[in-house]
Amino acid sequence: MKWHDYRPMWPAIERAVNFARTRAGVPKLRRVDRRTIYEQGHDALARAGDVYGAAHSNFEVNWRSARRPYYACYPRIAKALSTISLDFAVDLLIDQATYMPDILVRFSDDSCMWPISGRSVRTLWISSRSIASDDAIELIDAMASERGEAPVAHKHKGANVRAMSLSIGADYGELYEWFPGVEMPTNNVLRQPLFSTGLPGDRSVEEQFKYVQAWQAPATWNSRVGVNGEGNRALGNGIVPESLPYDMLQGILRFAVAIRLLASDPCSELTERVVLSKDAHRVADATPEELKRLVNRAMKRGVNGWTIGAAMEDDRSVAPHMRRPHPALMWTGKGRTTPRIVMRRGSVVHRAALTAVPTGYLDDGGDE
Q: For 111, which DSSP code?
């Protein structure tokens, strides 16, 4: 199966930063100064008011530093992961926010995820960051004020306020012109803050998504085409709109949350490590030690990935009268406090009704 490649911001950021330095009479930065170049590019995007571009560049520099981890997601499991329930406590995600916080998901040519005007998402990046308690309280009160509600900061005195920000960027394959001669990948970015106060009445992930969307809409998910100044223009067909439908946003968030949960569960039955193509035939019979060597060999060549749902893609035995195998969030371990996404087996829907259908044959008991 052919997977879409991630289109980095790096070439555009490097050209833009060194162009600005040349005009200012300052020597160009070398490629070994990669982090400095990213920081200056990030600052330039932030000064221009492009918070989405700044979030994207922040993801990219940290993702590169983490050896570019990615998931190659098969079509059937991708659809399933975009429908998981978000009716659980935010603490679950906050506890796992620091484990592999920057992840890339690559889709195949035939995945057709969240299509718009004939194009679908090629890659999706997910970045999670903790938010300081004071900043979280300030943001909670800002949302309350915008909605005409009374500030609630006084309610959180002495409470264990915890928060995180989940940033999600989708690449539909378009470019925009950052400035003349420098093209930048157009990524739509969704930023979702999540809060936990430890007090009764905390909203679930699902409820917080609805609350934040009502506060931010319609500017929550924006194309960066034409929003950074008059000098920017869309390249290509310009098909990416400035906002996406609510149900599409919800599906994207569900998918991103599922990926976050999978990333914190290295033993998941849904994922398999990616090795070099010349070693692929050895994986099935490899011992854990041998598999580790194969993975390390791949990582030395810059391949740091997992596949998701390969087994589901091979299983074509599910008939229309059967419930397909599907991922489910299960609570395991002592006290059922450890979350895992597991595959539930396919099952017959209304089995009793099927056994009651007359067949015209006698069973072992001799009754018709």
A: -
C-alpha 188/C-alpha 191 separation (Å) is 10
Contacts of 331 (CB under 8 A, 6+ apart): 337, 338, 339
Answer for the pair 294, 279: CB distance below 8 angstroms, yes or no: yes
Q: Element (H or E) spanning 314, and its range?
A: helix 310-314
pTM: 0.78
Nearest 5°: the CA angle 128, 39, 123 is 45
Which residue reads 């990046």 in tokens? 125
Q: CA-to-CA distance for 63 and 41, rounded, in angstroms? A: 16
Where do the H-state alpha helices sit in 165-283? 205-216, 246-263
Given the structure tokens 């997992």, which residue do they identify?
Answer: 306
Residue 80 burial class via C-beta count within 10 angstroms: exposed 0-12, middle 13-18, buried 19 and up: buried
| pLDDT single digits (tens) 117-174 | 788 999 999 999 888 877 877 777 777 776 677 666 556 565 678 888 888 999 988 8
Helix (H, G, I), strand (E, B) or coil at 329: strand
Give the pLDDT confidence of 311-353 residue by residue, as tens digits. Answer: 777 644 343 344 445 566 666 777 766 666 766 655 544 344 3
Listed in order, strand segments (DSSP E) in 254-355 are 271-273, 305-308, 322-323, 326-332, 338-344, 347-348
103 close to 72: Cβ distance less than 8 angstroms = no
Backbone conformation region of residue 213, classed left if phi is above 0, alpha if psi is from -120 to 50, else beta: alpha
DSSP secondary structure, 151-172, as one string = P-GGGGTTS--EEEEEEEEEEE
